[in-house]
Write a structure and sequence with these properties.
6-stranded parallel beta sheet; 478 residues; binds nicotinamide-adenine-dinucleotide; alpha/beta; Rossmann fold; binds uridine-5'-diphosphate-glucose
Amino acid sequence: MTSQKVVCLGAGIVGGCTQVVFASKCKTHDFYVVDIDEERIKGWNNFKPNYYEPGLNKLLKTCLNKNLFFTTDFENTLKDATLIFLSVGTPTKQRGEMKGIGTNLSYIESCCRMIAKYAKNEKVIVIEKSTVPVGTAQKITNFLQEYNKNETENEKENENETTKENKKKQKQIVVLSNPEFLAEGTAIKNLQHPDRVLIGGPNTEFGKYAQEQLKQLYKGWVPEEKIFFSNTWSTELSKLTSNAMLAQRVSSINSISQICEEIGAEVTQVSKNMGSDPRIGSRFLNASVGFGGSCFEKDILNLIYLCEHYHLYVVAKYWKSVLELNNHQKLRFAKNIADTMFQNLENKKITILGFTFKKNTDDVRGSAAIDVCNYLLGEGAILSIYDPKAKPKHIKLSLKGYNENQLIICDSVSNAVIDSHALVVLTEWDEFTQIDLSKCYQKMIHPSYIFDGRNIINRKSAQKIGFNIYSVGFPKNK
Ligand SMILES: NC(=O)c1ccc[n+]([C@@H]2O[C@H](COP(=O)([O-])OP(=O)(O)OC[C@H]3O[C@@H](n4cnc5c(N)ncnc54)[C@H](O)[C@@H]3O)[C@@H](O)[C@H]2O)c1
Ligand SMILES: O=c1ccn([C@@H]2O[C@H](COP(=O)(O)OP(=O)(O)O[C@H]3O[C@H](CO)[C@@H](O)[C@H](O)[C@H]3O)[C@@H](O)[C@H]2O)c(=O)[nH]1
């Protein structure tokens, strides 16, 4: 017997992965994931989610159509729901006031309208899983309460015995913040073994009841001491600042990588030396071509917006510098390729190894590869791109201003390197650590170069074969 119905609006990476893990862990609940995108829902129902995430398909098989359901039917799904997760996108605004900094809350708003219209339960608990600006829970609460009030007033005008009866059962609504910390490529593992679960909500009687209900969902597999309660604003802010701090670490080590390149130090050694101090810690200290993904930049922009709103301009400037350094890192990496190769890339074939923003995902959103490739295309290079998972249509859509014969999408490293002047590593796929560099060298035009944006190619072996190699944070060609 199942006891409670949980609904999640949004069947993307967060909506899909969280509900698959919930359903596999909580057999006492039924989970319904609703999306406006019919194709996406069809994919889930055919055991074919529209993105790649290690371990997801295997887990999906254990619960789909048992206690996990995917649908586009908002009305029937929401009508008797108590716990409603919001897992829709919250991208950066592309127009109007605060364009390029503020958050586009249109998807959140459309979910609120669906909830207001269709959720008929006396108790409605809305849970923010999406990453939102601080204060969004309050906005949602105001909206839903306002809608509820108007509905009740309309009823009053047509008051009869039945509505009098209904009035006694007025809806109770609360909005909780429960941000998600999964990282793509390790989402299932992160959800099964979270470092912490944050729950924020109001300190009212119903607020406390709602937080307890949400805690019950996690209780089956998350140790109690890892579930933290705080007020809604602290919880919403913690999500933004967690990402900001992680991104700041990457920008910090990338800034150090630039120093290393100039003075002859090696950034991997510096990372190891610094990271062995437990106060600093060793994780997230891998210098790279620059961070990417759909979250870091968006969430820092969100934080900058908040700072500027409260006139904290010096603080805003501090966080802006994390993004500036990241953009500089990508551009510096791309420029070095041109500078090294006779300051001329016109019609030169360059092999791009990896296009996703990190390994073990097919997501190219915000990938550093986009900026690097756009720069190289702008210089007239011909790119032969190989990525084990990125979809060719996503690669093509993310690049701009090239003509058709400048872009070749390949299905293997060995095809991609033919007649190429350089190998450019942009994603740290395990497969690239196993490349037969001698075979590549034979197929390439000489002198041949490697530009390693992830420090995964063995420098000594590459040099022995004859390559000129440039790795992030290593002395130039030594
Ligand atoms: N991707 C991540 O690794 C990650 C991790 C933690 C938090 N987040 C946050 O979670 C949120 C979702 O991110 P994502 O990567 O899963 O996004 P996504 O783009 O993969 O999925 C969003 C889904 O919402 C659907 N949608 C839009 N409007 C809808 C509506 N009115 N009703 C129902 N569905 C609707 C879209 O069709 C899409 O399927 C964002 O706020 C993001 O910042 C993302
Ligand atoms: O030492 C490092 C670590 C990461 N990166 C890059 O940083 C980016 C982000 O990596 P990661 O954080 O692993 O991936 P995301 O899937 O974007 O996950 C982040 O963003 C999510 C969305 O908010 C959060 O839930 C996660 O906790 C947070 O790690 C990628 O381009 C990585 O290649 C580096 O360059 N060097």
